[in-house]
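Researcher: I'm comparing several assemblies side by side, and this is the next one on my list. It has 586 residues spread over two chains. Same procedure as the others: predict the full complex and return the structure.
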Amino acid sequence: MENAKISADSLSVGYKKPLIKDICFNVRGGEIMTLIGPNGSGKSTILKTIAGYLKKHGGDVYFEDSSAEKLSPNEKAKKLSVVLTERIKPELMTCRDVVETGRYPYTGRFGKLEQNDRDAVNRAVEMVEMSEFADCDFSEVSDGQRQRVMLARAVCQEPQILILDEPTSYLDIHHKIIFLEILRKLAAENKIAVIVSMHELDLAEKISDFTICIKNGAVAHSGKPEEIFTDDIIRELFDIPDELYKKYF
Amino acid sequence: MKRQTRTIAAFVGLIILLLLTLFINIFIGSAGISFSEVFHVLFAGTVDDTTSGIIWKIRIPRVLAALLLGGALSLSGYLLQMFFHNPIASPFVLGVSSGAKLTVALVMIAAVSRFRTVNSAVMILAAFTGSLISLGFVLLISKKMERMSMLVVCGIMIGYICSAITDFVITFADDSDIVNLHNWSVGTFSGMSMENLKVIAAVVITASAGTFLLSKPIGAYQLGESYAKNVGVKINFLRTALILLSGLLSACVTAFAGPVSFVGIAVPHIIRVLFKTSKPLILIPGCFLGGSIFCMLCDMLARTVFAPTELSISTVTAIFGAPVVITVLICRKRGEL
């Protein structure tokens, strides 16, 4: 069996006080793990802690075999990349310029791109189907395209692990599906371990290899999608009264 | 590659313009020295002592000061804009120049009354301290307030407080100090000595080279702190470096030329539009050249338009700089920039 690219061992996360305790998971290359749960349950907090933006309160995160906190910023950058909820508004940057920033860990003192860097950028841009718009200004493309550019940026960083925080939230259903399809392909082809938080339960069910449900400061359930996406678990996880659940699902 | 052609053309244009303004500044002045006389002084040795004195001791130090300090000011504004992700941040707007002005005024009064002169390194140190104190306040405020317009308003208020204290101090200073202080506190490139110039060159060139070495992390920082951190930028180091470098650059300007307005905001925007890029590797040298040209031109106007009466440099920079800032704000609202 292949080793896990990223794993957490009784990790506890939070801002000042521990918010969620005892998180455990293993994600192997090519697998997608989804985080679901109500607003404010702490999905982002978990992702931010794994990605190193927040200090953990206990437990450990491992990238392959090494403890995440022992890696230098540059080593870490080559292993893990992110697509975050915060919206960037760079000025006078083309989509390609934004993607190119992902090559940062690999370039020299002045960040000059070599041929292999440009190839990686081109591959990433093609993968997210943005070649046509690569030289458009980033502020002029649609939300869906922008999100794909951010994915391409993360991809050309050539990570082992990819973390995405609600990447599909602002997209219409067409772009949601395109985005997730690309993500699926990416995980499979590049053997990347993907951790993604989502609100779209129907889509999460289709894309996950493994799902963790967060509620009230704990991992409420975890397992394969067919075990998680059942009427009982979902109704309880999101506190939906019986009659409403029947009406809407 | 269309983009590359544009970059090269723009750099060539800027360098030609820089040399042109440099020479015009040396050839033109209120003393009425003819073209051929200046030429002789520059390239064929002396004509007579007064003429060569005017050229070598007045005009050349002054234009070189405008060149170096203009570049420094523009670069300092660029760095602050990057740091705060705020298009209208600049040393003048954020009260950094006024903070420097206050400490320099205090040091000048204290030192002149005791030792009659002030060492230029001490002046820079005083200005640097004042810059950092102002920046410290602005940073504290920026932690509490997210909105960039509020940051600017607070910066302007800090500027007013510092100016008020400076005026207060000047009111109670000795007569001899006041003459010195008044000239300087409105902003001027005049009265630059070669000794001053050496100090200016050392500080400005070092700080600008330091800035240039930070091009790569500054580029990544444009996508916001989180993404910068994700690609391995050492955020705390970068933020500290940005603050220290922009503080040092603007301190050097304030120490020798007094507060100069609008260069720090206007020039980086003109340069961005000119090069149509946000790559720091291009913008950093571009901003320096642009600031040099802008300040040399403004200084030329300041000393020639109403000669022999001189305008303060900020009068001229404001006339050309303020419309640029207004245009930037309008375009931004329309989402064009």
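Model: For your comparison table: The beta strands of chain A are 4-13, 20-28, 32-36, 58-63, 66-67, 80-83, 161-165, 193-197, 210-215, 218-223.
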